[in-house]
Design brief:
Pfam families: Plasmid_parti_C. Keywords: Plasmid. It comes from Borreliella finlandensis. InterPro entries: Plasmid_parti_C. This is Plasmid partition protein putative C-terminal domain-containing protein. The protein has 45 residues and is mostly helical. It has one domain. Helices cover 93% and strands 0% of the residues. The chain has two helices and no strands.
Length: 45
């Protein structure tokens, strides 16, 4: 992995960007799930 990144910094940026975007999507999905669960709990009370 290190050698792969050392060869070309653009690859490193590509990987970081990919991880960042994936994390953002995961966070976004988590927020949506959390809101759904909160709404369901509100309705049941």
């Amino acid at each position: 992995m290190y050698n792969f990144c050392k060869q070309d910094s653009k690859r490193l940026y590509f990987i970081i960007e990919k991880i960042y975007k994936d994390k953002k999507d995961i966070l976004f999905e988590l927020i949506i799930e959390y809101k759904k669960i909160k709404d369901i709990k509100k309705q049941s009370h």
